[in-house]
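SEQUENCE, STRUCTURE TOKENS:
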Amino acid sequence: MPQTLGGIDVGGLERSGGRRSDSIRFGPRAHGVERAEVYLSMCAFEPHRHDTYAIGLTTAGVQIFRYRGSRRICLPGQLHVLHPDETHDGAAGTDDGFGYRILYIAPELVRDALAGRALPFVADPIQEPTPAARPIASLLADIDEPISELSSAEIAAAVADGLLSLSGQTNFGRATVDIRAVELVRDYLVAHASEQTPASILEKIAGIDRFTIARQFRWAFGTSPDRYRTLRRLALARAAIESGRSLARAAAEAGFADQSHMTRQFKRTYGLTPGRWTDLTAASLPKTSRGQGRTWRTAPHSSGALTGT
């Protein structure tokens, strides 16, 4: 993807004093999806435009920008939704600066998720955190999470459905779930949790496209295919750690990108880092069994809960 944060006075990123420094930090980018975290106070974006949808969540301060001939104000917790190829600028509305996280997604990915329908246009670029907007906002919770082909399809489906709703168009609605198809996907993810399964493989297994898989899997199991796979990986990692493997080796064997990736997911799921969890569980073991490891078994369709034996 082309660089999306064009039009900025880079020289203005350097500043002195005790205030927070202006910064732009990108997360991993892949498969038509890019995310960034931005803080600005001393510099501003000049008028520019993207060839992607740009969907941001203001996290601090007051953000002001001109878009389609009007001055807009975006406050913390609000979304701003910019259509591809629409000119806009951006600056802090107060001396305290402003921060936001933003998602850039290729329009062709959105179009594919809508089965070829015309791209949705959201007339009001400032959106409150309504039920229609929250699924999009949740995509910016962790910009450091790697983007797989599978999660890219899930992001596209969530964005497409959200944009349709915010634009006032009729959404797809909840069609009847193809239970056999999504169960085949689930069973494959359980059996191949540590692998980087391409979305194309799941399409062949299920006989439906990746965007339908993303929607119907969540309707059937309450979570996305990518998140379901992550929970299976965490179960593998917990068993490996309990058997005495190092955190780095447990992360690699379970299919995580690295130890820090596993740690973020572990803490998000269990509320503790792997190291702290290991210390606490070890402290509860009889002295004779410490260091010997336990065998963990997990029901293949559970949410990740394990039973020790």
Q: What stands out?
A: Confidence is low (pLDDT under 50) at residues 1-17, 288-309. The radius of gyration is 22 Å. The first strand starts at residue 23 and ends at 26. The chain has three domains: 10-165, 171-226, 228-308.
